[in-house]
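In response to the reviewer comment on reproducibility (Comment 2.3), we provide here a single inverse folding case reported in full, input and output, so that an independent group could reproduce the run without further information from us. The structure tokens appear first.
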């Protein structure tokens, strides 16, 4: 696995995210998850070859943490655009209004999820019930919902905002909505729902 390239320049999300924070976040933090995923895969292959499974539990924990960190960061970067903001359209907006009552109600619940999370706030599609839900995920994999597919991700680990906002996570969350690339979110939603 290789680190995905950003779909915009490092300074494209200013003033919401500074160029420095985006470089640190993408080039250091996200790269670390990619490296951790690759290292865990190598160790798993090695233990299968050698027949020594004495460290399997810790390797699998590392795999899960780093894999989930990679997947969520990939979604996060693609959910953002310097030309973002506004509201979704089409089937996604209809589904949000059906499942949350209104776009505004969804947004307030998502903001509350982001304020409570120890890692990520996600908008996920759940095929089993044909519903959209907001989910609070701690770290990258704790409290995740089995069978749910993220369509929108907001990283609220401190490395995402502290340099630019200090302890004011709420301002970081509020400003996030000005950079959401709803076309990308809609495309992901359509891609997932077409499979079920």
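Designed residues, in position order:
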């Amino acid at each position: 696995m290789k680190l995905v390239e950003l779909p915009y320049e490092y300074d494209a999300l200013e003033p919401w995210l500074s160029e420095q924070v985006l470089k640190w976040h993408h080039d250091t933090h996200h790269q670390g998850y990619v490296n951790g995923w690759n290292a865990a895969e190598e160790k798993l292959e090695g233990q299968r070859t050698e027949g020594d499974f004495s460290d399997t539990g810790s390797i699998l924990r590392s795999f899960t943490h780093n894999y989930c960190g990679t997947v969520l960061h990939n979604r996060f970067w693609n959910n953002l655009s310097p030309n973002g903001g506004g509201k979704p359209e089409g089937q996604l907006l209809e589904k949000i209004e059906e499942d949350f009552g209104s776009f505004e109600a969804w947004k307030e619940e998502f903001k509350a999820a982001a304020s409570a999370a120890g890692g990520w706030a996600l908008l996920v599609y759940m095929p089993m019930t044909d519903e959209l839900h907001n989910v609070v995920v701690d770290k990258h994999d704790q409290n995740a919902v089995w069978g749910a597919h993220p369509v929108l991700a907001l990283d609220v680990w401190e490395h995402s905002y502290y340099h630019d906002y200090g302890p004011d996570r709420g301002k970081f969350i509020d400003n996030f909505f000005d950079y959401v690339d709803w076309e990308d979110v809609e495309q992901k939603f359509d891609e997932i729902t077409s499979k079920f």
